Amino acid sequence: MQRLTRLLANNKGFLTFMLCMFVFRSAVADWNVVPTGSMQPTIEIGDRIVVDKAAYDIRLPFTHVSLLHRADPQRGDIVVLDSKTADERLVKRVIGVPGDQIALVQNHLYVNGKAADYRPIQVSGIHADREDPAIYAIEDTGAMQHAVRWSLAAQGHTNDFGPVTVPANQYLLLGDDRDHSADSRYFGFFPRKEITGRATRVALSLDPDNHYLPRSDRWGATLH
Prior knowledge:
By secondary structure, this protein is mainly beta. Helices cover about 15% and strands about 40% of the residues. Strands 1, 2, 5, 6, 14, 15, 16 and 17 form an eight-stranded antiparallel beta sheet that branches. Strands 9-8-7-13 form a four-stranded antiparallel beta sheet, with no helix packed on it. Strands 10-11-12 form a three-stranded antiparallel beta sheet, with no helix packed on it. A hairpin with a 6-residue loop joins strand 3 and strand 4. The longest helix is centred in the first third of the chain and has 16 residues. The protein starts with a helix and ends in a 10-residue tail after the last strand.
């Protein structure tokens, strides 16, 4: 016991620093590794994203208990959540907020009965395109504009979704890679209390298909 006491006393500064860092990461800001491509092309496999954990709530550190409500997720936000249904941490985009009616018809989005506009774009550097060629477009609903990815192999085979109305205190979340994302089409609506923060930018990016070499052009990139 005396040895432990001396150890703690000799390393008090370091232990205090580590505690403060853990509290900061739990309640204020954190960074997460993205291991899947469900948010391509916006977030690539190997990106380390910065998460603003105080964007919506100030929470009691190491819990989901909200001490101060600051805001609610908006359409287009990229959110991080600890999903009980999926049994894992997810990174998805908010497509429907409470009260919205959402539908997908031939993979084209309808929000409250209004069809999104699509503008084709060119995207390079997505490794999945080698074996699973895709087309890309900017999805524009007026309130949000962002890139989406559609697999060419899935064209004509995608299932329509909805229309569904988002209940109170629930959110409809989709991945930007529409044909390769387990999201609200599979898990249903996600409770507001499970959303822990908003992804804001790429901290750094390592390419798992190229010996984890840095993708310096993505470092610091803002997420839209």
